[in-house]
Write a structure and sequence with these properties.
The chain has 437 residues and is an alpha/beta fold. It folds into 3 domains: 188 residues, P-loop containing nucleotide triphosphate hydrolases (Rossmann fold), CATH 3.40.50.300; 73 residues, Helicase, Ruva Protein, domain 3 (Orthogonal Bundle), CATH 1.10.8; 99 residues, Arc Repressor Mutant, subunit A, CATH 1.10.10. The chain contains 16 helices and 8 strands. The chain is globular. The termini are far apart. InterPro entries: AAA+_ATPase, AAA_16, Cdc6_C, Cdc6_lid, ORC1/CDC6, Orc1/Cdc6_arc, P-loop_NTPase, WH-like_DNA-bd_sf.
């Protein structure tokens, strides 16, 4: 087989398996975020612990509650989907052999708490309870995420749950998004003990990326939800390599990549995303796309390097999107100052620009900007997060001391604009001329 010949110009090259096709990706689904792998590899220890959490359900005994934690991309969601699938299949098989009275009944409700942020309403126990109700109701009968007193929503939820029988397993993925109000996390696992339900047994699995969330859970929640805790450690580069090989084997044509491709993608994901398999898979996918765009039949190092840069860009934009409104306004103020060549800028200049931004975006509500001191607290956080750099000026005795701020190397106005777009916020131009003293 001849590699390295551009098939766009040489379609007669019948030696190449790509003669009709310059694509490197054979099965793109396998590289999608929501793809569930048939095998979970390098996770024997964790899977063993996790399987024993599900055993009582299979046996028709009271379910256990469990709390899973670990960094993003370490297989928490994948392992859970995998075990859920197996549990449901195995119960179905088992039930076929049993008389109806002895059959095991299981309902699984999967909620990704991240998706329960609607408009101004942050994800909360309340919103998730609404989500559970709506999973159990027909389309015409759903309730809205506003307009009910919290206690009413919980009552409706328990009423709906109690219409079922057997075991209800509620899986709360990204549960850290639920925030401070952990009512649901405390009550749901104990709902039968408290007397909220009689007919069903409720088991809850909470999955979290956020270590501090686990640490800050109230002792009551720790007692109930965290009955079993399973830690998903980060992958090392070798493990990432194995996961990636398996995935590449299904997703890419054999000639599209080499062991070096796998090694470099794994090494970069290990180094830059602390052992995230998600990052490794995204990197492989982006590399393959770039190679395709370049008409290359094989992923080369330069494609992987470029892909890595692309992902970093996306990551920064994503982390800007995650900031609260005040910080977004400050970043926007800095973007305008930057574009006008006015950075680095002193705090009071930034504050003046920030105040214009706040007033522009809140013309209807009349919300006022924070004081300079109030804004400075947010600005300091942005420095801490690495979005903004501080330049210390110290003119020695009598010369005064002041700080100036500018974007760090990771941030530029373009990324802030992209973040606004991702948040569906219009990018209004703010005039910062004459703002600097
Ligand atoms: N042990 C594994 N075996 C196969 N694929 C895995 C494994 N761990 C993670 N993955 C894949 O890596 C990606 C990220 O995993 P995911 O379970 O979503 O991470 P988390 O939920 O911990 O953030 C998914 O595409 C998943 O299929
Ligand atoms: Mg996940």
């Amino acid at each position: 087989m001849t590699l390295g010949i551009s098939l766009h110009t040489d379609m007669d090259d019948i030696d190449s398996i790509f003669a009709d096709d310059v694509e490197l990706i054979q099965n793109a689904d396998v590289l999608e975020e929501d793809y569930t792998p048939q095998q979970i590899i390098c996770r024997d220890n964790v899977l063993e612990q996790y399987t024993s959490v599900f055993k009582p359900i299979y046996k028709g005994r009271p379910p256990q509650n469990a709390f899973l934690y670990g960094d993003t991309g370490v297989g928490k969601t994948a392992a859970t989907k995998y075990l859920r699938q197996n549990l449901e299949q195995d119960i179905e098989q088992k039930n076929k052999r049993l008389p109806e009275s002895e059959q095991v009944s299981l309902t699984v409700i999967w909620i990704n708490c991240e998706n329960f942020t609607t408009g101004d309403h942050k994800t909360s126990s309340y919103q998730v309870a609404v989500g559970i109700v709506n999973r159990l109701r027909d389309t015409g009968n759903r309730i809205t995420g506003t307009g009910y007193a919290p206690q009413d929503v919980y009552d409706i939820m328990y009423e709906e749950l109690d219409k079922l029988d057997g075991t209800v397993l509620v899986i709360l993925d990204e549960v850290d998004k639920i925030g401070d109000d952990d009512t649901l996390l405390y009550e749901l696992p104990r709902s039968r003990d408290i007397g909220y339900v009689e007919n069903v047994r409720v088991g809850v699995i909470g999955i979290s990326n956020d270590y501090t969330f686990r640490k800050n859970l109230s002792p009551k929640v720790k007692d109930s939800l965290c009955e079993t805790e399973i830690k998903f450690p980060a992958y090392d580069a070798g493990e990432l390599g194995q996961i990636l090989s398996t995935r590449a084997d299904l997703a890419l044509y054999d000639t599209a990549y080499t062991q070096e491709t796998i090694n470099l993608c794994s090494a970069l994901a290990y180094k830059e995303a602390s052992g995230s398999a998600r990052r490794a898979i995204r990197l492989l996918r982006r590399s393959a796309e770039i190679a395709e765009e370049n008409g290359s039949q094989q992923i080369e190092e330069k494609h992987i390097r470029q892909a890595d840069k692309d992902l970093e860009y996306g990551n920064i934009v994503e982390s800007i999107v995650d900031q609260d409104d005040e910080k977004l306004y400050i970043l926007k103020a800095l973007a305008h100052l930057d574009e006008a060549g006015l950075t680095p800028a002193r705090t009071r200049t930034i504050h003046a620009a920030y105040a214009r931004v706040v007033r522009t975006y809140n013309a209807e509500t009349g919300k006022e900007p924070l004081t300079q001191r109030g804004m400075f607290n947010h600005l300091s956080k942005l420095v801490m997060f690495g979005f903004v750099n501080t330049i210390d000026h110290n003119k020695g005795v009598g010369g005064g001391q002041w700080n100036e701020h500018e974007f760090s190397d990771d941030v530029n106005p373009r990324k802030v604009k992209d973040a606004f777009e991702d948040r569906n916020l219009q990018w209004v131009n703010i005039d910062v001329r004459g703002i600097k003293d």
